[in-house]
Amino acid sequence: QLQLVESGGGLVQPGGSLRLSCAASGFTLDYYAIGWFRQAPGKEREGVSCIGKSGDLTNYADSVKGRFTISRDNAKNTVYLQMNSLKPEDTGVYYCAAELKLLSSLCVLKGAQYEYWGQGTQITVSS
Q: How far apart are alpha carbons 91 and 82 in whole angstroms?
């Protein structure tokens, strides 16, 4: 079966850091853009960051720009999200998702574009 599995979530104080991993099994991420999305209780899922299949092109939500960094290691079939200077408003369930990109190297923070989704990992930022 094709799976994406997030890891690295947890409880962290404001200003702290976490590194999330998204590991794929059953398929290679070489041909996929990868997005990170998050959902707070009672709110819509929102795009956080994405990275194109080549790793050259990235996008970030304005709310995380300068604090979060997305990267990928296709040899390990894994995508990472380094989160620094965390704020309480970063709290939520974080999901990684994969979008097949046969022709384009772009990525977009639009959930409907993504075919595969992980189960999510909880991030709680609180003092």
A: 15
Per-residue tokens: 89: 């408003």
Per the document, the length of the chain is 127
Q: DSSP letter string over the chain? A: --EEEEE--EEE-TT--EEEEEEEESS-GGGEEEEEEEE-TTS--EEEEEE-TTSS-EEE-TTTTTTEEEEEEGGGTEEEEEE-S--GGG-EEEEEEEEE-SS-----S-GGG-SEE---EEEEE--
Beta bridge partners of 11: 124
47 burial type by CB count under 10 A (0-12 exposed, 13-18 middle, 19+ buried)? buried
Q: Which residues contact 54 (CB under 8 A, 6 or more apart)?
A: 105
Using the Cα atoms of residue 66, residue 112, residue 12 and residue 71 in order, give the sign of their dihedral.
negative
pLDDT, one tens digit per residue, over 87-115 is 999 999 999 999 999 888 899 999 999 99
Report the distance separating Cα 115 and Cα 58, nearest Å. 19
**55, 103 Cβ separation under 8 angstroms:** no
